[in-house]
Amino acid sequence: MAKQRNYVILINVVPFIFYADVSKKGKVTFNRSIPAHATNPIIEVNLEDNTLGGYKESYHHGANYLKDVVVALEHQHHYAQINLVGHSMGNLEIINCINDKVNNQKLPQVAHLVAIAGHYDGGVWEKKMMNVKINSRTGKPNKMDSSYWDLLRLRKTLPRNTAVFNIYGDLQDGSHSDGDVPVNSAKSLNYLVAGRAKSYREVEIRGRKGQHSKLHHNDQVNRELIKFLWEK
Question: From which residue to which does any coiled coil extend (predicted)?
Answer without folding.
Answer: none
